[in-house]
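User: Predict the complex with adenosine-5'-triphosphate.
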Amino acid sequence: MKTKVICFANNKGGSGKTTTCASLAYAFGERGKKVLMIDGDMQLNLTLSYFNEDDALAFAKSEKNLYNAVKNGKGLEECIVKTEYENVDLIPSSTLMSSIEFELFTKWQRESILKKMLLGIVSEGKYDFVLIDAPPTLGCWVMNALVASDYIILPVEASPWGLFGLANMFEFIESVKEINSDLSLLGVVVTKVDARRNYFKQTLETLKATEGINVFQQVIHTDSSVEWAQDTSKPVGGYKKSARSAGEYSALADEILEKL
Ligand SMILES: Nc1ncnc2c1ncn2[C@@H]1O[C@H](COP(=O)(O)OP(=O)(O)OP(=O)(O)O)[C@@H](O)[C@H]1O
Ligand SMILES: [Mg+2]
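Assistant: Here is the predicted structure with adenosine-5'-triphosphate placed in the model:
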């Protein structure tokens, strides 16, 4: 199987990008797929989903992080760290990613820098998946993440404001396609569904009525295990296999694998 690069993006903050990226990486790994996660956000949340704070800050201070690679043109391969799960590796982030837009500004072909940096890893074919966690912005850096990707997965929170701003996101995807015509929206995943409330049905209906987008059958419910897992620096499947959200992310992984 050719390495598939998938970016988790939505300019709406807190929509479940990082949780979905971390949980799917675990679920794919469990299915024997080799996964490289890339933490593209200065909040270090993806790194913190697999490593404790001390480790995450140590990566950020060392040379093994994405910011250093982009700024100094360092090989991405050298920034890969192993997680405690055999099939799941990570390129950590750095808090300095806060100034990535500034760093990119003076670079030649600044929308395609990450794509070029990933060429070696993708052509080597060692990984089945490269999963990129994007920050909640729509600037040149997220453009880089999408230019480097084959697919985008868009997590949307089942809340009244979850859909707000989605039109901007779709417009942004269209503008990325001018550079990367192969990019396709693999699907929208509805997250943080509250089982006691019916609101998510409205979110789902609105999304399903939107032409040309796939909405994944599998939704993800609000589950306190997600927070406990994050508290112990583990993806939810690794923290508690029997957790509702762990099962849901596992089923979502199957649904995605069927589509690819
Ligand atoms: N299924 C869930 N059940 C309970 N809490 C969840 C669930 N999914 C995400 N959360 C919580 O919601 C918050 C936002 O989730 P997450 O960090 O994954 O979103 P994000 O889109 O990556 O946010 P940002 O835009 O800041 O990067 C986190 O505190 C996380 O613990
Ligand atoms: Mg995030």
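The pocket of adenosine-5'-triphosphate (ligand 1) is lined by residues 13-19, 41, 43, 45, 135-136, 191-192, 220, 222-223, 226-227, 230, 245 (CB under 6 Å).
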